[in-house]
Amino acid sequence: MSALKFPLNPAMAGTAAPPVMEARRWLDGVEFPADRPLINVSQAAPVETPPPAMQQAMADAILHQPDAHLYGAVLGRDDLREALAARWARLYQGTVSRENIAITAGCNQAFAATIACLTQKGDEVIIPTPWYFNHQMWCEMQGVNAVPLPATTNLLPDPDQARALITARTKAIVLVSPNNPAGVEYPAELIAQFRDLARENGLALIVDETYRDFHSVSGAAHDLLSDPDWSDTVIALYSFSKSYRLTGHRVGAIIASAEFHHEVEKFLDTVAICPNQLGQIGALWGIENLDDWLAGERQEILSRRAAIVEGFPALEALGWELLGAGAYFAYIRHPYAISSPDLAKKLVQNAGVLLLPGTMFRAASETIGASEVRVAFANIDKHGISTLYERLAAQKF
Length: 397
What we know:
CATH architecture of the largest domain: 3-Layer(aba) Sandwich
Shape: globular
Number of helices: 15
Number of domains: 2
Order of helices and strands: HHEHHEHEHEHEHEEHEHHHHEEHEEEH
Helix content: 40-55%
CATH superfamily of the largest domain: Type I PLP-dependent aspartate aminotransferase-like (Major domain)
Distance between the termini: 39 Å
Number of strands: 13
Structural class: alpha/beta
CATH topology of the largest domain: Aspartate Aminotransferase, domain 2
Strand order of the largest sheet: 2-8-7-6-5-3-4
């Protein structure tokens, strides 16, 4: 293949390759025997299809709803925006209207649009580590400095430490709860402290709630939206992908002020023109019909979380340490002298396990990532978790 004759954006060229795609390449050429199939705990996405009734509703839309095939409103379908606003208002005991909702092509696009509207090259965004790598990657591509805020006790970020990181260039603080990659659920009081910190300093507080439907708290996980002035500081992000198994249809949302969405609309119109129509139709059908089904999905994930915790003493006795567990994730410290990237590659060969090394979730300056790994257990049941632990326990490095 010939070398490129044209220049690349240095910020893009300097951004690391997508971690999940990199990890998948570790499978190339590896054969897994029938009695030891691959356990893939690398990606936090359900692989099962949506419920049959939802699929039927979406199929009916393809056949009988002409606008399912056409451009739609840039900020999303009004019926879905209204339904999500009503759901969030009810859940969080706050005032949320259709004007506060923008539908996006997945939650990654929601984050990208939000950062694009808040920052310019040279600005800073404070993000607790371990962080979701796509958040850091987007900032890096835009020439925005993702400032790491290393989590402390129980992998919770400290507002006082965040305060010390604020500069004239800081534009936002990002929280993800339940957290990806650590699984940790941030207490409502802690989230409120970050809101107060952001408000005092004229910053946006971005709260990514991609996994909120699998939170161990059945009601509101925070009280941010019960504040009548919430939209002067708070920007919430949400994903329908995990809740309704719509990952391939790319449907997410931004919950923010109507004024902010005037700017968001510019970004979305330029990037995608409108969100996926069929995915939006499915998401609306889910809101209107799948509360009981979603409650069952939540209970299943919580039962897997319990299996992660209850079965861990077998690994703990061998020197492993469970740092966090929740939503789809377990974040673990391994006991070996080798680095987590090397360990992860060896586990593919030796144990038939694909997981991600902690270095993918840490700033380059945080060497602690070399002793950490992330397990995404969305697609393995209790038996699969037990088998995973048995394979890890059998390894010696």
